[in-house]
């Protein structure tokens, strides 16, 4: 993009007087308090803060930004600081004075204003004019050492203040923000030469890289005297004075800090995340900001954590927030697990050495650690490619069950290596802040490693050729920390030799590293990872209904809805009251399946009144399916009839999910979300044979239930693939996981090749045509197709039944059928359709063999699974966790998909919903995804977040499903439940306005008669405290009630 054009586009985004004159409440406030404008610098009166505060209290905005308003109660109360009081300290050492709390809340408030689209545009200009960051950094509160929490909050404010965003471009890597920065530096150079050409000649002629570092720029400006520095500040548009009563003096230090803060280059989000370590150490777990007790956060003080809001500035902003929050949550869980394991081990100091008085199957002492290999860095890197080590562990001292668990460690599992030492040990330490224990011990060192080869595992990975004798554990150490340790000369000799304990975590809870790595790679990728039609809706800006199917262009011209409707009456009942669809139903009776064809509007023949009523609706003509040729089948026909009589709301959801766009389906308990999702997938499978669908769920149980329903429908098994570890629970006739699917395909290949041999024998074609898929393909080209073409030529010369009966070339092949495939006494048309159906059956055999041929040619299992995932399977199922863990691997395999259907969407965090949208390579023009279907119930279950601070303060438990619902995105609410008796459903139906019951709940006997042993349809039993104790919480998030357990087991 030309530089001038990019600059002009950016300048057009700056507020102007015409922009402010007729806008929202914020633009009106800015216009009313407008003072002056100098180039790109906009100056506001401080009174605009009060106007913004009033605007935030308006009801219309409070519904859109509850998080922002929640922080205001601590900012002002009748002009007094809340809470007041003298100087005290929290348990974590933070200052508890009223001034500090007020300052923290005010910084939080400004951060919230900058982190949301409705307020950022104008508030950002105000804060630039006030030089708020410079004022804060030079304030006495900021410089006090004990106010570390305030400094962390200011760092977060600084991040959002200098965040580079460009809302007009669809690519987050747009050069426009960088060009704007370059223009600012060019202005600095120009004005510096005007102030003092002699002193600042080097600055004026220097290249960009040499003056954008704070130290270099400071050295250039330090030669100026106070008057020259003030003149340069004035020319650059910085504020020269503050209103009376503002205790802020603009001296040399203030001017210098303002210029340095404005013109030094800031690291981008990609730079920040690229430099972040994914593995913890003793500093990141036991130093701030993780030291405060986040698990019992009470909301009295703000935290330096980004928040999950209704809106985000860009996809990069969203990913950075999720990276920070997910990393904080993961480290919190790791710290808790390590402390729990060490509590069970009971380390203590005895005779100058560490002994463990307890036991834990999650930990084991390290006899010896040996560094086997340190690989040189890769090109462009500064850390080793890998650091391979070997641990000698005492497996002979543990039980067989514990040893088996340790041997079940998988490659790439993260383990934790600790050095437990005496608290008073006089030796150097990496960190002054460590985890201490009552018995005179502490955690001196914590390092992470990834399993390379577990004990008893004789598979070789990478360059390792060591033999595992059952006592050794081969690992890859954290390369970044190993390099940092080597740079510390005082620790280079014995830091790893001092490691004396290894701790592992449960596999299902220890997947934090691959998820963080997936987010990290997403941030570093260029381009827009989302579909272009979904980006604005995802960020929370624009029209909430923009991605709804009625507003999407183009839509399918014709859709066969298969077994969605049971009969014509069912279709009329469910679609007669639709607010989005207008159906032209023919007068004659039709049998399902029904085909919806987009109607051609004829405004000339239609009345004006009718046209006005239906102009906002999608118009369709209803017809029956095209007659198909009868084809014999090699297998028994699969049961695929639909017995579910869908309600009007379910049909609306199915119609929405089958069409392009975003579909949010809210399903209270028992309303048939799974049946709706199954029908949507079937419709997509049959109507769009070139498209592939990704099926997701939060839990393996829900995914297996949905996958079983799909496998019972009219979908070929070879097009189904289940990824992950939950496929073991599937009870299907054939394996649907990737390795079982390959075996099933090879078995299918043998069966089809047998049919090829039988066909060759029936037409007396010599040769072994059924040896392989390749020979079968040649047989089809050389023998089968010419025979069929010859039959068609003969039939064109003599089109009669006798010609079909005597010249059909495959009569012998179909002679084993239970009944004649070509009716002997049929009409010419019926006999011709039967003959074409027979050839279609033969063609399907060769088409399927052609699809299987790559598995015959590929030799390695890895190549076969990659081809299966990227090409053969059309419906791929996995959990959201599996997608987050395996994202990079799936993308490398060339996975491609067009539709996403997600169950339990309200139970999945935003980042775990976002990652499945990005499982294919970015082509630079946005994701090719056409449909996103989210099914869930945000009123029933929310994502599980164990950290109280992240759940309540940062709102990390917010799901994308719930956020889109709050933003006003059109939803389809299922309104009929069929799971519980109406009386039982009344216990929760109050939470779902309009929730009714299906008719059979009032008709079938099992719902009308009482359950044996129960006096009432539902009843609550009061259980007194057992041995003086009721509900207990022995450990965080683990609740138990022994009295209720005894009552359930033994009765009253």
From TrEMBL:
Transmembrane segments: none annotated. This is Pre-mRNA-splicing factor. Residues 91-266 form the RNA helicase aquarius N-terminal domain. Residues 607-620 have a biased composition (Basic and acidic residues). GO terms for cellular component: catalytic step 2 spliceosome. Residues 603-639, 1029-1052 are annotated as: Disordered. GO terms for molecular function: helicase activity; mRNA binding. Gene3D superfamilies: P-loop containing nucleotide triphosphate hydrolases. Residues 350-505 form the RNA helicase aquarius beta-barrel domain. InterPro entries: Aquarius_b-barrel, Aquarius_N, DNA2/NAM7-like, DNA2/NAM7_AAA_11, P-loop_NTPase. It comes from the Eukaryota. Residues 650-946 form the DNA2/NAM7 helicase helicase domain.
């Amino acid at each position: 993009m030309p530089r001038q054009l990019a600059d002009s586009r950016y300048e057009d985004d700056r507020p102007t007087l015409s922009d402010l004159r007729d806008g929202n409440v914020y633009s009106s406030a800015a216009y009313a308090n407008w003072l002056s404008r100098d180039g790109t610098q906009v100056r506001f009166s401080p009174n605009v803060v009060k106007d913004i505060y009033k605007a935030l209290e308006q009801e219309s905005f409070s519904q859109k930004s509850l998080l922002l308003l929640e922080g205001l109660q601590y900012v002002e109360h009748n002009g007094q600081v809340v809470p007041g009081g003298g100087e005290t300290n929290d348990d974590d050492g933070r200052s508890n004075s009223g001034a500090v709390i007020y300052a923290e809340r005010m910084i939080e408030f400004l951060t919230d204003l900058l982190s949301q689209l409705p307020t950022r545009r104008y508030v950002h200009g105000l804060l630039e004019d006030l030089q708020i960051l410079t004022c804060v950094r030079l304030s006495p509160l900021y410089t006090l050492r004990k106010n570390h929490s305030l400094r962390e909050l200011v760092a977060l404010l600084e991040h959002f203040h200098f965040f580079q965003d460009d809302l007009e471009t669809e690519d987050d890597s747009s050069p426009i923000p960088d060009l704007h920065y370059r223009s600012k530096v060019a202005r600095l150079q120009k004005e510096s030469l005007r102030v003092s050409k002699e002193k600042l000649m080097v600055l004026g002629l220097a290249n960009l890289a040499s003056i954008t570092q704070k130290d270099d720029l400071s050295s250039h400006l330090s030669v100026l005297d106070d008057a020259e520095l003030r003149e340069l500040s004035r020319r650059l548009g910085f504020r020269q004075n503050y209103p009376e009563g503002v205790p802020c003096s603009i001296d040399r230090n203030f001017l210098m800090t303002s210029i340095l803060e404005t013109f030094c280059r800031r690291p981008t989000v990609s730079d920040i995340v690229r430099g972040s370590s994914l593995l913890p150490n003793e500093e990141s777990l036991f130093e701030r900001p993780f030291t405060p007790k986040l698990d019992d956060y009470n909301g009295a003080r703000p935290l330096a954590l980004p928040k999950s809001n209704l809106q985000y500035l860009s996809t990069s902003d969203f990913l950075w927030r999720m990276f920070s929050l997910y990393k904080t949550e993961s480290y919190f869980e790791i710290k808790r697990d390590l402390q729990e394991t060490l509590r069970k081990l009971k380390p203590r100091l005895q005779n100058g050495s560490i002994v463990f008085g307890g036991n834990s199957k999650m930990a084991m002492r390290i006899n010896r650690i040996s560094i086997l290999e340190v690989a040189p860095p890769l090109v462009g890197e500064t850390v080793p490619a890998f650091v391979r080590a070997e641990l000698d562990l005492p497996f002979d001292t543990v039980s067989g069950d514990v040893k088996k668990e340790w041997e079940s460690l998988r490659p790439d599992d993260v383990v934790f290596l600790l050095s437990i030492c005496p608290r008073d040990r006089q030796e150097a330490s990496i960190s002054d802040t460590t985890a201490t224990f009552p018995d005179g011990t502490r955690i001196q060192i914590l390092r992470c490693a990834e399993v390379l080869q577990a004990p008893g595992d004789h598979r070789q990975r990478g360059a390792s050729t060591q033999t595992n004798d059952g006592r050794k554990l081969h690992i890859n150490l954290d390369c970044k920390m190993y390099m940092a340790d080597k740079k510390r000369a005082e620790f280079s000799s014995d830091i790893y030799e001092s490691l004396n304990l290894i701790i592992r975590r449960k596999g299902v809870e220890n997947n934090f590293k691959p998820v963080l790595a997936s987010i990290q790679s997403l941030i570093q990728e260029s381009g827009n990872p989302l579909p272009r039609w979904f980006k604005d809706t995802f960020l929370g800006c624009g029209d909430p209904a923009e991605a709804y199917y009625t507003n999407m262009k183009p839509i399918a011209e014709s859709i066969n809805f298969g077994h969605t409707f049971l009969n014509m009456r069912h279709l009329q009942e469910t679609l007669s009251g639709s607010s989005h669809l207008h159906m032209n139903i023919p007068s004659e009776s039709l049998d399902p399946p029904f085909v919806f064809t987009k109607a051609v509007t004829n405004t000339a023949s239609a009345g004006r009144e009718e046209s006005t009523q239906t102009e906002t609706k999608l118009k369709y003509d209803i017809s029956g399916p095209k007659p198909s040729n009868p084809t014999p089948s090699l297998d028994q026909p699969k049961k695929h009839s639909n017995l579910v009589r869908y309600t009007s709301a379910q049909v609306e959801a199915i119609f929405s999910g089958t069409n392009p766009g975003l579909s949010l389906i809210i399903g209270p308990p028992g309303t048939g979300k799974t049946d709706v999702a199954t029908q949507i997938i079937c419709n997509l499978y049959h109507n769009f044979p070139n498209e592939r669908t990704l099926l997701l769920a939060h839990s393996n149980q829900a995914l297996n239930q949905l996958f079983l329903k799909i496998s019972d429908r009219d979908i070929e098994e070879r097009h189904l693939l289940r990824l992950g570890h939950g496929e073991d629970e599937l009870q299907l006739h054939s394996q649907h996981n990737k390795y079982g699917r390959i075996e099933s395909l090879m078995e299918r290949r043998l069966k089809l090749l047998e049919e090829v041999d039988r066909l060759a024998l029936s037409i007396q074609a010599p040769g072994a045509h059924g040896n392989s898929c390749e020979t079968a393909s040649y047989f089809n080209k050389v023998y089968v197709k010419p025979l069929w073409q010859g039959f068609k030529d003969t039939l064109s010369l003599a089109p009669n039944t006798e010609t079909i009966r005597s010249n059909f070339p495959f009569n012998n092949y179909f002679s084993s059928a239970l009944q004649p495939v070509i009716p002997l006494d049929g009409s010419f048309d019926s006999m011709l359709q039967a003959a074409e159906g027979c050839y279609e059956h033969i063609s399907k055999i060769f088409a399927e063999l052609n699809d299987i041929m790559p598995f015959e040619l590929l030799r390695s299992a890895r190549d076969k699974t990659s081809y299966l995932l990227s090409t053969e399977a059309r419906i791929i199922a996995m959990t959201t966790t599996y997608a987050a863990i395996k994202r990079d691997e799936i993308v490398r395999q060339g996975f491609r998909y067009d539709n996403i259907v997600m169950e339990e969407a309200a139970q999945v965090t935003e980042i775990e919903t976002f990652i499945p949208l990005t499982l294919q390579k970015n082509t630079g023009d946005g994701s090719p995804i056409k449909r996103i279907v989210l099914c869930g119930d945000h009123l029933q279950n929310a994502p599980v977040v164990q950290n109280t601070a992240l759940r309540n303060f940062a709102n990390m438990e917010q799901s994308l499903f719930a956020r889109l619902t709050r933003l006003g995105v059109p939803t389809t609410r299922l309104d009929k439940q069929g799971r519980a008796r109406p009386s039982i459903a009344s216990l929760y139906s109050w939470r779902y306005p309009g929730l009714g019951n299906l008719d059979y709940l009032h008709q079938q006997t099992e719902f009308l008669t009482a359950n044996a042993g129960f006096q009432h349809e539902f009843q609550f039993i009061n259980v007194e405290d057992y041995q003086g104790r009721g509900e207990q919480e022995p450990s965080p998030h683990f609740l138990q009630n022994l009295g209720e357990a005894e009552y359930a087991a033994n009765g009253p």
